[in-house]
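Z., the sequence and structure:
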Amino acid sequence: MHVTIFSTKPYDRVFMDAAGGGHRLTYVEARLTRDTCVLARGAQAVCAFVNDVVDAAVLDALKDMGIRLVVLRSAGFDNVDLAAAKRCGITIARVPAYSPEAVAEHAVALMLSLDRNIHRAYVRVREGNFALEGLLGFNLHGRTIGVVGTGRIGAGVARIMLGFGCRVVAFDPVRDADCEARGVTYMPLEDVLAAADIVTLHCPLTPATRHLIDKEAITRMKRGVMLINTSRGAIVETGAVIEALKDGSIGHLGLDVYEEEETLFFEDLSDHVIQDDVFERLVTFPNVLVTGHQGFFTTEALAAIAETTIANVTMFESAGKALHEVV
């Protein structure tokens, strides 16, 4: 099949070409939007990434061009209008589990960096400043970690933190038997927020989880809590978090996602003035560490994403049904 792949970077080409499967792959650097979807003309399938727009207008345009398949290089599909896809007869497929360990390990890396102020120490030492004032951390051993969402990634974080000697409490509508066997204690969400020294978020973005962490949720947390989000940006209400950082309710914040990341992440904007004033305020705090949605960014994960994406295309071409269909 001829597949037009949007939002591509050089590393995407390396892994997608390796997985190729004999398909014709056309790479487009632009994000998929209503204005750019015309670049897929002549293809039978489109490949989209997390910040591409797959709404009703885009799907209608793709349908008019004869596109029958949209394959996502991600597990999440909150950027897709599923009802419109069904109406247009377009199959949506995804990569449900590319490398949960990659994101889990990144979440823990954020915890460790914030706890021991490694991000600040790195800058100091490069400037010849070896003073320790302001870098005081705390032992993770014996702390309570609250895991919100114990799918593959959340369960991976739980396993790692149990290895650090932490107490792990969790909330998920569906309990994981393996987590429980390892010693994870499931609680209602409000109890997890109240008990945890570190809250780490690993849930999909749905209407029920949008702004799950808002002003009210923050009031339930321990004062000075560390909050980590490597799932989807809109699970955290950024304005509420900024106010909590200002008054000390949140002591540390680690983000690999941001609710308005579409125009920022995955791009080199170092020569530009960032126009997002909320984001700019967020990164002024010394106890905030933001990475640009790189939790998935390991060799193993990119290889798995490419292989599963191509497998979805191959099965659809041969059987009219993708390997991991959403719609």
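The chain is about 35% helix and 15% strand. The longest strand covers residues 250-255.

Let me know what you think.
H.
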